[in-house]
Amino acid sequence: MSTFNVPTREEVSANNQAIFDNLNKALGFVPNLFATYAHSDTALENYLNFSNAKTSLSNKEKEAVNLAVSQVNGCDYCLSAHTAIGKMNGFTDEQILELRAGNASFDTKLDALATLAKNITENRGNADQNVIDGFFAAGYTKGNLIDTIVLVGDKTISNYINNTTQIPVDFPAVQPLETALV
Questions:
Q1: In 3D, which of 33, 103, 106 has the Cα closest to residue 64?
Q2: What is the pLDDT of residues 84-108, one digit of tens each?
């Protein structure tokens, strides 16, 4: 059982209260994971700035990476959140399951990206050269590679925070991949 609570607006710093207010306006609620970042006076703002920074990857590409990385890292919270966000970005349930598994038979370019994201995460940054070559062969650039690695790091931070704190998931829960693929 987690010793971490999800802090309320009243329990966080004034700076984090303002961020909570902005999240409420934008999303209609403060996701539990973001609220958990607010145990620190600086982590929530730092993370949101990092996570929302400019990238060469499209929103769909970002979700492909987020799903593959969260699956490897076993983060139910992020899998649930990014399944919902993936659907908002036009992915079907079947496509989301494929992306979680680190592939995308429905799109060659996304397949190379999801494969790379999974491989980087599984190998702690020591990606297989054939996977990197496949990524470039699919039309991605060195800049895209760097942005993908940055996104893997971004998602891994959230995965680790959730996996350590075990805060409650406040998105529709997803099935374990093994169960969902049966």
A1: 103
A2: 999 999 999 999 999 999 999 999 9
